[in-house]
Automatic annotation (TrEMBL):
Its EC number is 4.2.1.17. The lineage of its organism: Bacteria, Pseudomonadati, Bacteroidota, Flavobacteriia, Flavobacteriales. The keyword Lyase applies. Keywords: Lyase. GO terms for biological process: fatty acid beta-oxidation. Belongs to the enoyl-CoA hydratase/isomerase family. This is Probable enoyl-CoA hydratase echA8.
Length: 260
């Protein structure tokens, strides 16, 4: 995987994707968005990838938002297309059939906050700042923020964040419920890796099915969600991993999941 604005490395079943535009605080332009979508399309079929960590290069920013200068001369039609391009990239990341961890090392503003929200788990440095400041530019969050944030923290708190455009500390976001853990800056990637390794040791098909159940079930009635949950549970009994997991428990040994 060779990209202009992304760096990728993999150790075992865990991959780390770094958005690498430090001079622009890793701001999202069309190139970054296209490469994120391309990466996700390639990664979804990688049988040797079970957990992905996404972070930003440098110490200042995870992603400091969209490239504002690139938007200055956009027409309304171009702006709409820009929004849909970003949404498609983030949807592709959200739909990956394995766990995705955002390791937020600095500013996660606008599109950066929206990118983090498309991940499954958000780990944040004590120095991280989150916000959706589009209202200060006469705009609204258009990379999924008005949809994913209310689902993550509730409608009324999301309205406060979006309407004010204020920045929030990692601790405040943890209290709101969309940051999982706040970590010392020097330990962020180590702890993200440790969590990733733990998840990677679990049954990969089970993790994928659990993710599917939660994502699709969120918009279903409880009755329909429970029905789906039971069906997905049953599907796992067609897998070798299920037999390995149960067998390992009975035999009092660690399971060796193959992902089949």
């Amino acid at each position: 995987m060779n990209f202009e604005t992304l760096q990728y490395q993999q150790e075992g079943y865990v991959g780390t994707l770094t958005i690498n535009r430090p001079d622009a605080l890793n701001a999202l332009n069309n190139t970054v968005l296209a490469e994120l979508k391309s990466f996700a399309e390639q990664a979804k079929s990688k049988s040797d990838l079970r957990v992905l960590i996404i972070t930003g290069s440098g110490e200042k920013a995870f992603v400091a938002g969209a490239d504002i200068k690139a938007m200055q001369s956009m027409t309304a039609a171009e702006a709409t297309e820009f929004s849909y391009t970003a949404q498609a990239a983030f949807n592709a990341i959200e739909a990956l059939p394995f766990a995705v961890i955002a390791a937020v090392n600095g500013f996660a503003l606008g599109g950066g906050c929206e990118l983090a929200l498309s991940c499954d788990i958000i780990l944040a440095s004590e120095k991280a700042k989150f916000g959706l400041p589009e209202s200060t530019l006469g705009l609204l969050p258009c990379f999924g923020g008005t949809q994913r944030l209310p689902r993550a923290i509730g409608l009324y708190k999301a309205k406060e964040m979006v309407f004010t455009g204020d920045f929030y500390s990692a601790v405040a976001c943890e209290a709101m419920g969309f940051v999982n853990r706040v970590i010392a800056p020097e330990e962020l990637l180590n702890q993200a890796s440790a969590m990733a390794q733990t998840i990677a040791s679990r049954g990969p098909i089970a993790v994928a099915k659990a993710k599917e159940s939660m994502h699709t079930g969120f918009d279903l009635s409880l009755a329909d969600g429970l029905k789906q949950e039971g069906a997905l549970f049953g599907e796992l009994f067609h897998t070798a991993d299920q037999k390995e997991g149960i067998g390992a428990f009975v035999e009092k040994r660690k399971p060796n999941f193959k992902g089949n």
